[in-house]
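Last lecture ended with a question: if I hand you only a sequence, what can you say about the shape of the protein? Today we answer it with a concrete record. The protein is Succinate dehydrogenase. Below, first the input exactly as provided, then the predicted structure, then a couple of comments.
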Amino acid sequence: MSTFSLTVDVWRQPSPEEPGDFTAYDVPDASPEMTVLELLDRINAQLEAAGEDPVVFDDGCREGICGKCGVTVDGVAHGPERNAASCMQHLGAYRDGDRVRIEPLRASSFPVKQDLSVDKKALRLVAKAGKFPVAMKALANGGCISCGACVASCPNGSGQLFVGTMLKELPPLAKDDAERRERSARVIDAAEEQFGPCSLLGDCVEVCPAGLPIENLSAVAQEYLRNRFPRRGGDAPEPR
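The predicted structure:
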């Protein structure tokens, strides 16, 4: 297996209250098959051998399905490989002597806890507004893994892809139309509090590991209009 040398600039931040900065680490034995998280593992092995504090980062299944991991690689949420979670981002595009920049998912709604680890409480608060177990089932039905990359990739910090996927799948889980309206209204209100507005730029679908479609963005407006302007004598027609 061929190996090559990389210089990796990693964001180090001791706590939310303290400032952070990049620290450079040399990795002489990176390989094309290695993932971004495995690259961090290699750096941590070096740090632990030297008696230094390892880099803290969010880790999970390493199969690209749990949504727990998430870093920004060279300015792109998760990494340059389209529609792949951080744990599935391989180093095949890098060459000997290249420099890699790894930092947390960047969004005002995702404050840094330590180093590369962020607090995704905003996602949980929006799901809680839709009744947490039901909202999580809706997200699972829609294929969303709640990684937050859509928020971090958006210049506005919008969670529209996350919220739209939830709202698209919530209606069949409501016992009646009144519950649907109430639940969707709470979700939309919570999303407006936690996230920025959507400008339909589509950056979110470029980084989404689940490959969620851009059409899901429209579900937020559809549910809002359905609640705001119900038809007399019956329900508003379902969106096509």
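Comments.
1. The domain at 120-228 is CATH 1.10.1060 (Fumarate Reductase Iron-sulfur Protein; Chain B, domain 2).
2. The two ends are 51 Å apart (CA to CA).
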